[in-house]
Design brief:
Layout (H helix, E strand, L loop, with lengths): L6 E6 L6 H12 L8 E6 L2 H10 L5 E5 L16 H4 L5 E4 L2 H5 L5 H13 L3 E6 L3 H5 L3 H12 L12 E4 L16 H19 L1 H6 L1 E4 L8 H5 L6 E4 L6 H13 L1
Parallel strand pairs: 1-2, 1-8, 2-3, 3-4, 4-5, 5-6, 6-7
Length: 258
């Protein structure tokens, strides 16, 4: 490719930190992580923390992401948050995370609607896909990836596919899974090739080469170097390690050096 794709380091804080704790943690990170043209650092706090952190954040240093939202613009949907309500706070939104799929039973149709809604709102969706341990055991990794990509992107036009980031997060490797096993680099490369092959089939070779593909699953400062050096992997979606300043800052520095 003519120009290298930017690296993304995305911190998914999940249901951790009060608003006060999130503010203190952001202050700690801001003193240790310097802005970089090569690496975009994205923080995904709880929804309740998005507004106060948006006032505190240096947007040259960090961008904010939503962990979740509802795809409709407004209405009688008790407990939900629309993109129209957080549009000024976030530049990214995580969609289809395995915990949304398998804990909260989000449907493929909901995920597709969320991807489309994010694009309409000029927010970059980070579409998470990945096979379960059973899929892998039965040799269905490629089928699972194909299915989730096809359904998740079915409302995305060829003109808009460049506005999507794909995060490969095999469910069997996520640290919140008690039986998690870290993915080997060869597993990730295989999945990345499957993803780009299917994007090429859906949108063409150029789109497949340009789209950013991240990896997420039991990432820490010890495993990050090997993952970040993989050809075709453009960054990391980080869970537990993003809650520990030393770990997270180390991973960002590793990304800058790749």
């Amino acid at each position: 490719m003519d120009t290298p794709r930017k690296k993304y380091i995305v911190a998914n804080w999940k249901m951790n930190f009060t608003t006060g704790e999130a503010s203190l943690y952001l202050d700690k990170l801001s003193k240790r992580i310097q802005p970089s043209r090569k690496v975009q650092v994205v923080l995904a706090p709880s929804t309740i923390s998005l507004q106060p952190l948006s006032l505190q954040i240096n947007r040259r240093q960090f961008k904010l992401s939503a962990q979740n939202f509802y795809w409709r613009e407004y209405g009688a949907y008790t407990g939900e948050v629309a993109l129209s309500q957080i549009r000024g706070f976030v530049d990214y939104a995580i969609v289809g995370h395995s915990e949304r799929r398998y804990v909260f039973n989000e449907s493929e149709e909901d995920i597709a609607q969320k991807v489309a809604a994010a694009i309409r709102s000029n927010i970059t969706p980070i579409l998470c896909i990945g096979e379960t341990a059973l899929d892998r055991k039965e040799g269905e990794t490629a089928a699972a990836i194909y299915s989730q990509l096809t359904s998740g992107l079915h409302q995305v036009s060829k003109e808009d596919i460049s506005k999507v980031i794909i995060a490969y997060e095999p469910v069997w490797a996520i640290s919140s899974n008690k039986n998690a096993k870290p993915a080997k680099p060869i597993d990730i490369i295989e999945a990345e090739r499957i993803i780009r092959k299917h994007i090429a089939k859906l949108y063409g070779k150029e789109a497949a080469e340009e789209i950013s593909v991240l990896y997420g699953g039991s990432v820490n400062k010890d495993t990050a170097p090997a993952y970040l050096q993989l050809e075709g992997i453009d960054g990391l979606l980080i869970g537990n390690a993003s809650l520990i300043a030393d770990q997270f800052c180390a991973i960002v520095e590793i990304a800058k050096g790749v």
